[in-house]
Amino acid sequence: MVLSGRANNRIGAGREKRYTNVAALVDTNVLVYRFNPRFPDKQRIATDLLREGIRSDTLRVPHQAILEFVAAVTRPLSQGGSLLTPEDARREAEEFLVQFNILYPSEGVVRAALRGAAAYQLPWFDAHLWAYAEYYGLPEILSEDFQHERLYGSVRVRNPFFANGGSVGPGATSRS
Q1: Directed axis angle between helix 86-99 and helix 63-74, to 10°?
Q2: Quick one: three-class SS letters along 84-147?
Q3: Closest Cα partner for 169 from 31, 43, 25, 32?
Q4: Domain map of the chain by residue range?
Q5: CA 110, 93, 5 angle in degrees (round to 5)?
Q6: 147-172: per-residue pLDDT in tens?
Q7: What are the tens digits of pLDDT across the range 72-101?
Q8: What are phi and psi of 102, to 5 degrees?
Q9: Which of 19, 46, 59, 114 lies 20 to 30 Å (CA to CA) from residue 38?
Q10: For residue 79, what is the DSSP state?
Q11: What is the CATH number of domain 24-165?
């Protein structure tokens, strides 16, 4: 399901006030909740967050999240079926490639992940996700898989599903 096209940035003269939008890194769980009707509050939050991120061009998606998304949404559910068929999952992954700026791994990202895993005792896949934000200079990660509002180096993690002092429902994904 297409959320909308990439935001077009226009430059013009006038009395408009300018604000700098700072991009945030989106974790896999936000992408998965977009397609997870078992958690309607999280699905609504994820949908709104992704639409706004596309409109304002303020979200970045790491390559890792695309891979994890396809694996998570095609994984068999305990009650049978999966969130998406393999065909739909591949189509949605292709849409993400068009709608968002995708960040790809580099030697610098891997080295940052190695340092992050050691310094913050993060599991490898979490350290790798954090490394994208650290390496690319993104000040925020949107994820429910880290401690809410914790600062890791120069990157703060915000759980978009954390409402009124508590998380909205159970988790959707786990990294293996």
Answers
A1: 160
A2: CCHHHHHHHHHHHHHHCEEECCCHHHHHHHHHHHHHHCCCHHHHHHHHHHHHHCCCEEECCCCC
A3: 43
A4: 24-165
A5: 110
A6: 999 999 999 999 999 874 455 554 44
A7: 999 999 988 999 999 999 999 999 999 999
A8: -100, 130
A9: 59
A10: T
A11: 3.40.50.1010
